[in-house]
C-alpha cells in the first residue's frame, strides 16, 4: 500500500482528490450508520425474537404507513444529496481550466507514448510540472485502453476512433503509478507507467534536455536506456526467454525462419525495418501484432538500439 | 406420512427416456438444477485457479494468455450458464407451479425446449474452451473482441443461444402466473417469490433480444467484416458498450430479483411472521424491473459518453437503489416480534442481509460519478459485484436450495453439516472479497495477471479466503448428495410454511396435487395459522393458544 496514503486511499496528489475522498467518506459514514441499523437490527431481532418454547401465532403486523414512508423518503433525500455532490465534482474533473498545458497521449498494446508541444517524446513516463493544470488529449492506435492515475483519482478511456480528454493538476512532486484499466490483452497488466511530477524549474530543465537525450552517452548505453524507456522489455526479453516477441539476446546476426518460410539473418537493415515496419517480416511462432515505431523513435535512437543489440551476446 | 414411499414424480416413471422427454416442470427443474450446479462447479474451479495465480505477483502457474482465458471463462460460465438460469429455471421451474397450486407451467413443451436450448448453448460455450479459449472478458468489448485470435464466435454464439432459453422460460412464467393461479389466489395473495419471478420474466423477455442482436452483430463483424463496432472498418466501439449494457444491466436484476423473492419467503417462514409491507415489496420488484432498463450508462462513466448522459445515468442509478433498500427494511420489520428459528435457510437469510447491505452501500458509492471515475475497472467494482451477485443472489439461491430440498427429494439434509458449511462460506466469502474493496480503492486494476508488490498482502488474504469458500462448498456437496440417498425422510412441511407448495407431499406426486387446491389462507397468515407436524392449526379453533409474545 501507499505509505503516504490512508487505509482506503493512496495519497492525494491532485486538486480533485480531496473532494472525491470527502464524498467517499460521507457515504462511508452514512453506510456504517445504516449498516448498524439494518444488519445490527437483524442480529438484534434474531436474538430477541428467537423461538422460546411452544409454537405460537404471531402478531398481525402487516404494514405501517408512517414507517414505510420514512424509510422510502429519507434514503431518497440522502441519495439525492450524494448525486448532486458527485456530479458537481465530476464537472470539475471534466472541464479543464483555460490555463492548461496540453500533452498528446497515445495508448497502444502495451505502452503509453507522450508527445509534448515542444517536441519531446517519452514512453511510459509522463513528466509534468507541479501546480500546473495539464490537459491530456488521448487516442489509441489499436484497442481501447484506459488512463488511470490512482493518486490523482482520475481515469479516462482511450479510444481508437476519437479523442478523449482528461485533465489534472498535480499538487505534490514525486513519482506516481499510471495503470491501463481497460483490458487490452496479453500485456494489459504490464501496461504500467509513471507520472513524474517535477518542480517548475526541474521540469523546464528536463524539457530542454529531453530533445537531445543521449547526447553524452555511448550509443550502446543510450540503446540500453531506450530499451527501458520505450518499454521494449514488455514484449522482448534480454535473457533469451521468448515473451510476446522474440528475445533480443543474441539477436544480431541470428538466422531466423520467417512466417512465410524464408530465412533471414538479422542485420542492421532487418532490425531497422522491424522497428519501423514490424509486420513486414515476422519470425515464425510469433504473431504480427507489434505496432510501428515510426515517429516514436528518431534515426539516432534506432542506431543506438542496434548498437545495444550487438552487445547482447 | 407414508406418502413418501408411494408414487411421486421421482419414481412414477422409470428409465432415462422418462427424464429426457419429460414434460413435468419438476423433472425439468431438476435437470436444470443438475446443469447449473455443474456450471457452478466449473466456474468455481476457474475462480480458484485465478486466485491461485494471484497469490504472488508475476508468473506462478499460468501464462498471461491462460490467465486471461480463465477469468473470461469464469465470468461467462458463471453469468450465462449458472446465475441467470439458477433461480428461475432450476428452482423457479420446480416451485412456481406448486406455489400457484397448478399442475404444471403453462407451456410444458416450451419448458423442455428451453432446457435443450440451454444444453446446446452450453455446448457451444464449452466448445470454445477446447478451441483456443476466448480471452476477451465476459463483456466481449470491441474492438478487442473483433481482433483477438481466440474463439470469440463460439462463445458469443453460445450466449446468443442461451438467450433463447432464457426468453422461453420468461414467456412461460408470465403465462403461468397470469392464467394458472389456484382459485382464490388473486394477484396480491401470491407468494412474493412469484412476484419476483414475474418481474424477472418481464426483464428476460424484453432485454435478452438486445443481447442476442448485439452478439450476432459481433459475429457478423468478425466473419463477414461488416464494420459496426470496429473503427478500423468504420464502426464505433462505444456503440457496442451501449448495446451490451442495455441488456447486461437489466440482467443483473434478472440475477438478483429472484434471490430477493426467495429471501421474502424465507424471512417470513422462519420468523413465522406475516411479511411486512407485502404490497411495497411486490411493487418494488416491478419498480426495479422498470428502472433497471434506464441505468445502463453507469457502466460507462469513463467510456467517452457525453457528460450529460453520465449525469442522467448517475441520477437514475440512485433510484434503482431505493426499492432494494425498501425491501431490506421490510425484511427487517418482518423479523420484529417473530418466532425465529435458525435452520440453514434462515442462516442464509441473515448472511444475505449482511452481504447484500454491503453490496448495496458500495453500489451507492459507485453511483456517485466522481467516485466511480476513481473506482471504475478496479477491484472495488469486482468486490461490489461479488457482494451483490454472490453475497446476494448465490447466498439466496443456497438458502432456497436448502429450503426446498426436502420438497424436491423428500429427504432431509444434515443440519449440523449445513451449519458448518454455511460458516465456511460466510467467513470465506468475506475474507475473499472484503479485501478486494481495499485493493480497488488503493488503485489495483481488474483483469491484471501481474501486479505491483504493494498489493501482495491483500491478494494473499483474498486467495486464502477462496480456499475457505472451496472447503465450504465441498462440505455442502457432500451432505446434499448424501441426503438424496440416505437422508431421513422429510415431512410434507418441515418448516411449517403456509404457501401452497408445502400442502402437497414431499416429494410431490406427478401432478402436484390430488385435487385442485383452493386458496384457503394467504401465504403469510402466521397470525392466524400455523403448521405443526404437517397439521394445520387455525387460530379460531384454538382460542387458548393466543399469542404469548404480547
From TrEMBL, chain B:
It is a multi-pass membrane protein. Pfam families: COX1. InterPro entries: Cyt_c_oxase-like_su1_dom, Cyt_c_oxase-like_su1_sf, Cyt_C_Oxase_1, Cyt_c_Oxase_su1_BS, Cyt_c_oxidase_su1_bac. It is an enzyme of class 7 (translocase). It is found in: Cell membrane; Membrane. The keyword Hydrolase does not apply. Gene3D superfamilies: Cytochrome c oxidase-like, subunit I domain (1.20.210.10). It catalyses: 4 Fe(II)-[cytochrome c] + O2 + 8 H(+)(in) = 4 Fe(III)-[cytochrome c] + 2 H2O + 4 H(+)(out). Pathway: Energy metabolism; oxidative phosphorylation. Its EC number is 7.1.1.9. The chain crosses the membrane at residues 30-50, 70-100, 112-133, 153-175, 195-220, 240-263, 275-296, 308-326, 347-371, 383-405, 417-439, 459-481. Keywords: Cell membrane, Copper, Electron transport, Heme, Iron, Membrane, Metal-binding, Oxidoreductase, Respiratory chain, Translocase, Transmembrane, Transmembrane helix, Transport. GO terms for molecular function: cytochrome-c oxidase activity; heme binding; metal ion binding; oxidoreductase activity. Residues 19-520 form the Cytochrome oxidase subunit I profile domain. GO terms for cellular component: plasma membrane. One of its GO terms (biological process) is oxidative phosphorylation. Belongs to the heme-copper respiratory oxidase family. PANTHER family: CYTOCHROME C OXIDASE SUBUNIT 1 (PTHR10422). NCBIfam families: CtaD_CoxA (TIGR02891). Cytochrome c oxidase is the component of the respiratory chain that catalyzes the reduction of oxygen to water. Subunits 1-3 form the functional core of the enzyme complex. CO I is the catalytic subunit of the enzyme. Electrons originating in cytochrome c are transferred via the copper A center of subunit 2 and heme A of subunit 1 to the bimetallic center formed by heme A3 and copper B. This is Cytochrome c oxidase subunit 1. It comes from Caldithrix abyssi. The gene is ctaD.
Amino acid at each position: 500500500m501507499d505509505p503516504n496514503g490512508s487505509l482506503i486511499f493512496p495519497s492525494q496528489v491532485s486538486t480533485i482528490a480531496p473532494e472525491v475522498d470527502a464524498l467517499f467518506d460521507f457515504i462511508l459514514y452514512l453506510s456504517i450508520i445504516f449498516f448498524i441499523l439494518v444488519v445490527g437490527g437483524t442480529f438484534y431481532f434474531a436474538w430477541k425474537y428467537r423461538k422460546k418454547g411452544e409454537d405460537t401465532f404471531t402478531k398481525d403486523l402487516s404494514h405501517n404507513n408512517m414507517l414505510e414512508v420514512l424509510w422510502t423518503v429519507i434514503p431518497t433525500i440522502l441519495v439525492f444529496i450524494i448525486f448532486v455532490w458527485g456530479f458537481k465534482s465530476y464537472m470539475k474533473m471534466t472541464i479543464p481550466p483555460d490555463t492548461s498545458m496540453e500533452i498528446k497521449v497515445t495508448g497502444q498494446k502495451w505502452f503509453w507514448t507522450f508527445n509534448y508541444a515542444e517536441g519531446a517524446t517519452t514512453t511510459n513516463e509522463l513528466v509534468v510540472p507541479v501546480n500546473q493544470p495539464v490537459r491530456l488529449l488521448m487516442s489509441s492506435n489499436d484497442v481501447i485502453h484506459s488512463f488511470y492515475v490512482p493518486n490523482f483519482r482520475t481515469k479516462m478511456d482511450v479510444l481508437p476512433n476519437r479523442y478523449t480528454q482528461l485533465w489534472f493538476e498535480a499538487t505534490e512532486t514525486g513519482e506516481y503509478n499510471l495503470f491501463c484499466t481497460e483490458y487490452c490483452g496479453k500485456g494489459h497488466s504490464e501496461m504500467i507507467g509513471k507520472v513524474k511530477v517535477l518542480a517548475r524549474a526541474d521540469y523546464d530543465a528536463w524539457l530542454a534536455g529531453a530533445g537531445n537525450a543521449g547526447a553524452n552517452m555511448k550509443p550502446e548505453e543510450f540503446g540500453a536506456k531506450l530499451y527501458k524507456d520505450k518499454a521494449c522489455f514488455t514484449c522482448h526479453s534480454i535473457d533469451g526467454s521468448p515473451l510476446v516477441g522474440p528475445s533480443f539476446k543474441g539477436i544480431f546476426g541470428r538466422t531466423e525462419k520467417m512466417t512465410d518460410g524464408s530465412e533471414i539473418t538479422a542485420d542492421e537493415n532487418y532490425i531497422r525495418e522491424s522497428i519501423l515496419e514490424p509486420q513486414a517480416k515476422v519470425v515464425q511462432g510469433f504473431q504480427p501484432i507489434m505496432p510501428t515505431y515510426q515517429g516514436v523513435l528518431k534515426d539516432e535512437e534506432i542506431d543506438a538500439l542496434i548498437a545495444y543489440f550487438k552487445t547482447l551476446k | 406420512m407414508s406418502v413418501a414411499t408411494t408414487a411421486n414424480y421421482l419414481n412414477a416413471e422409470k428409465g432415462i427416456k422418462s427424464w429426457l422427454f419429460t414434460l413435468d416442470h419438476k423433472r425439468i427443474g431438476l435437470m436444470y438444477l443438475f446443469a447449473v450446479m455443474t456450471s457452478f462447479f466449473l466456474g468455481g474451479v476457474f475462480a480458484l485457479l485465478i486466485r491461485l495465480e494471484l497469490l504472488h505477483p508475476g508468473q506462478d502457474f499460468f501464462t498471461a494468455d491462460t490467465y486471461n482465458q480463465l477469468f473470461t471463462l469464469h465470468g461467462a460460465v458463471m453469468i450465462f450458464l449458472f446465475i441467470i438460469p439458477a433461480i428461475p429455471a432450476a428452482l423457479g421451474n420446480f416451485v412456481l407451479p406448486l406455489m400457484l397450486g397448478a399442475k404444471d407451467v403453462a407451456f410444458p413443451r416450451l419448458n423442455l425446449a428451453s432446457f435443450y436450448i440451454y444444453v446446446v448453448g452450453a455446448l457451444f460455450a464449452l466448445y470454445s474452451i477446447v478451441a483456443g479459449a476466448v480471452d476477451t472478458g465476459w463483456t466481449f468489448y470491441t474492438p478487442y473482441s473483433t481482433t483477438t485470435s481466440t474463439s470469440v464466435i463460439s462463445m458469443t454464439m453460445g450466449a446468443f443461444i442461451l438467450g433463447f432459453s432464457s426468453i422461453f422460460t420468461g414467456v412461460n412464467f408470465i403465462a403461468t402466473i397470469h392464467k394458472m393461479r389456484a382459485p382464490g389466489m388473486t394477484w396480491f395473495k401470491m407468494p412474493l417469490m412469484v412476484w419476483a419471478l414475474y418481474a424477472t420474466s418481464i426483464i428476460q423477455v424484453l432485454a435478452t433480444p438486445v443481447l442476442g442482436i448485439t452478439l450476432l452483430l459481433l459475429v457478423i463483424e468478425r466473419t463477414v467484416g461488416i464494420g459496426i463496432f470496429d473503427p478500423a472498418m468504420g464502426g464505433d466501439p462505444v456503440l457496442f458498450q451501449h448495446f451490451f449494457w442495455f441488456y447486461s444491466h437489466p440482467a443483473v436484476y434478472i440475477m438478483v430479483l429472484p434471490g430477493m423473492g426467495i429471501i421474502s419467503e424465507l424471512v417470513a417462514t422462519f420468523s413465522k411472521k406475516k411479511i411486512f409491507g407485502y404490497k411495497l415489496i411486490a411493487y418494488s420488484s416491478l419498480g426495479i424491473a422498470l428502472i433497471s432498463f434506464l441505468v445502463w450508462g453507469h457502466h460507462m462513466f469513463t467510456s467517452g459518453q457525453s457528460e450529460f448522459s453520465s449525469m442522467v445515468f448517475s441520477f437514475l442509478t440512485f433510484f434503482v437503489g431505493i426499492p432494494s433498500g425498501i425491501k431490506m427494511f421490510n425484511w427487517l420489520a418482518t423479523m420484529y416480534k417473530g418466532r425465529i428459528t435458525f435452520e440453514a435457510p434462515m442462516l442464509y437469510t441473515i448472511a444475505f442481509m449482511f452481504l447484500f447491505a454491503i453490496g448495496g452501500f458500495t453500489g451507492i458509492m459507485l453511483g456517485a460519478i466522481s467516485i466511480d471515475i476513481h473506482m471504475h475497472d478496479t477491484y472495488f467494482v469486482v468486490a461490489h459485484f461479488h457482494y451483490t451477485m454472490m453475497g446476494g443472489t448465490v447466498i439466496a439461491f443456497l438458502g432456497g436450495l436448502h429450503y426446498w430440498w426436502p420438497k424436491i427429494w423428500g429427504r432431509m439434509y444434515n443440519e449440523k453439516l449445513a451449519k458448518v458449511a454455511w460458516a465456511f462460506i460466510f467467513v470465506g466469502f468475506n475474507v475473499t472479497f472484503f479485501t478486494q474493496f481495499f485493493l480497488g480503492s488503493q488503485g489495483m486494476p481488474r483483469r491484471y495477471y501481474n501486479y505491483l508488490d504493494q498489493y501482495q498482502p491483500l491478494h494473499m488474504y483474498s486467495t486464502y479466503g477462496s480456499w475457505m469458500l472451496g472447503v465450504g462448498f465441498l462440505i455442502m456437496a457432500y451432505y446434499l448428495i448424501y441426503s438424496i440417498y440416505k437422508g431421513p425422510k422429510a415431512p410434507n412441511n418441515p418448516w411449517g410454511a403456509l404457501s401452497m407448495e408445502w400442502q402437497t407431499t414431499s416429494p410431490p406426486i406427478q401432478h402436484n396435487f390430488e385435487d385442485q387446491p383452493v386458496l384457503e389462507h394467504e401465504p403469510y397468515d402466521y397470525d392466524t395459522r400455523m403448521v405443526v407436524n404437517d397439521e394445520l392449526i387455525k387460530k379460531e379453533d384454538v382460542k387458548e393458544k393466543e399469542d404469548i409474545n404480547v
